[in-house]
Write a structure and sequence with these properties.
By secondary structure, the chain is mainly α. The protein has one domain: Rhopdopsin 7-helix transmembrane proteins (Up-down Bundle). It contains eleven helices and no strands.
């Protein structure tokens, strides 16, 4: 009987002591977790696909800011597939090949890195739009936004290749069969901490503090009868930009709230279940982003109706006035 209990707690019972131990949970808990994670995965892929189709299809939305949002939506779309691998690892067992393990490891680096880079670019875009509105349209163009997005993904891919070069073969490093663990050199870990947390988060916070300081000063100026005449032109220029800054500010705050716990837990001693929770919270941000657009962007809701009613299949639908 004790032998049967031991086998039930192994990823590959027929391999005996060579197999990794699996996390044993009540069947009802497994079913609940599978339903929750599967639903989040499907919704993350679907909602971000709607964002991708919306910004790509409607020409009225082909602005520098929206192309940066498109980059974020593509990375969030990919996160939906990362959730599939997380579902496989629910019982702490890897049932796929070593190549799939390496693919999963690479995906877990390149996608979040591109996502962080996209949020930094969005913060820079809002900073220029609010703090230097007169030169915004000359400094920030569609072509420059596209080049920035390309460089963001290229640098993410290059950075991933550098880290992967420091990774040992997952199958060779695993302590038992049924594990997907990649070893990264300690120097690479320190570099990763600086490049994916300290530097980008500091940049985002500094830029957005400046944005909201300027926004607050303009709000005070609008209530001042003396300043209204002097600032009337600049307020008119900045009104839509300030609204966009507020919406994207919500995106940035939610992003930081989901990102920070993951890194805190990663570098502190924690249980496997705690680490798994904060990792899913980190990925859950990709589900939240399109939800923010739904509630705060009227044009996005209008575009979703166009897509779901298949009106985008009509000729000339890309020219529709959805603003």
């Amino acid at each position: 009987r004790s032998s049967n209990n031991l086998s039930a707690g192994l990823c590959y019972p027929h391999l005996g002591n060579s197999s990794c131990r699996r996390i044993v949970r009540p069947p009802s808990v497994y079913v609940l977790l599978y339903i929750i994670l599967s639903s989040i995965s499907v919704l993350t892929v679907t909602l971000n696909l709607l964002v991708i189709i919306t910004i790509s299809h409607f020409k009225k939305l082909h602005s520098p800011t929206n192309f940066l949002l498109l980059s974020l939506a593509v990375s969030d779309f990919c996160v939906g597939f990362i959730f599939i691998f997380e579902i496989i690892l629910l019982d702490n067992c890897w049932y796929l090949s070593a190549r799939w393990c390496m693919f999963f490891s690479v995906l877990c680096i390149i996608v979040p890195t591109a996502s962080i880079g996209s949020v930094v670019l969005i913060s820079i875009d809002r900073y220029i739009a609010v703090c230097d509105p007169l030169h915004y349209h000359t400094k920030v163009t569609v072509n420059r936004a596209k080049i920035s997005v390309f460089l963001c993904w290229f640098c993410s891919a290059l950075y991933t290749l550098v880290l992967v070069d420091h990774m040992k073969n997952p199958a060779g490093f695993n302590s038992c069969i049924g594990e997907c663990v990649t070893f990264i050199h300690p120097v690479a870990i320190v570099l990763d901490l600086f490049l994916t947390l300290i530097f980008p988060v500091s940049t985002i916070l500094i830029l957005y503090v400046r944005v909201f300081v300027v926004a607050a000063s303009q709000a005070r100026a609008m209530h001042s009868h003396v300043a209204v005449v002097k600032l009337q032109g600049s307020v008119k220029v900045n009104k839509s930009e300030l609204k966009a800054a507020r919406v994207l500010g919500v995106v940035v705050v939610v992003f930081l709230c989901c990102l920070t716990p993951f890194y805190i837990v990663s570098f502190l001693y924690s249980t496997l279940s705690t680490f798994y929770f904060v990792k899913c919270l980190y990925y859950f941000n990709s589900f939240l982003n399109p939800m923010i657009y739904v509630f705060l962007y009227p044009w996005f809701r209008k575009c979703v109706k166009y897509i779901l009613s298949l009106q985008i299949l009509k000729s000339g639908s890309s020219e529709a006035n959805i603003m």
